[in-house]
């Protein structure tokens, strides 16, 4: 399974791993083209879902429902593909939502700070 998902160094599909190569200091594994395509399709589903809908408390369930409905691809060997694919999807969606929420919170914090400074400048 691991040989289907990763490779120790870039191969012919080097363009797929430019970021990994840029950050590599001697120990990173490179994604195979199969894994790269799998994650890219997941990202497209995620982006499509959140370009139409706002973040809510049950957003993770909404994203997983869309992935389950539209995403039929699996990665790995035939014996491990269902479990491995489910774990990758779970990890990716949770990680992606974490950073999506972090970005939204950062924007809101910036607006709050700006309003706070404006209020303080008016009081002075």
Give your account of this protein's structure.
This is Transposable element. With 124 residues, the protein is mainly alpha-helical. The protein is built from five helices and two strands. The chain has a two-stranded antiparallel ribbon with strand order 1-2. Helix 3 crosses helix 4. The chain is flat and about 65 Å long. It starts with a helix and ends with a helix.
Shape: flat
Helix content: 55-70%
Mean pLDDT across the residues is 81
> What is the rounded distance between the termini?
65 Å
Biggest sheet character: 2 strands, antiparallel
Across the major sheet, the strand order is 1-2
Radius of gyration: 20 Å
Total number of domains = 1
């Amino acid at each position: 399974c691991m040989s289907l998902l990763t490779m120790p160094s870039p191969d012919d599909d080097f363009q797929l791993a430019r970021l990994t190569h840029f950050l590599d200091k001697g120990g990173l594994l490179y994604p195979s083209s199969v894994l790269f395509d799998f994650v890219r399709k997941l990202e497209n589903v995620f982006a499509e879902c959140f370009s139409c809908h706002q973040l809510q408390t049950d957003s993770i369930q909404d994203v997983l429902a869309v992935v389950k409905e539209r995403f039929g691809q699996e990665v790995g060997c035939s014996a491990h593909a269902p479990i491995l694919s489910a774990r990758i999807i779970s990890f990716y969606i949770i990680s992606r939502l974490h950073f999506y929420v972090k970005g939204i919170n950062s924007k809101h914090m910036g607006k709050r700070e700006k309003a706070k400074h404006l209020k303080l400048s008016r009081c002075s």
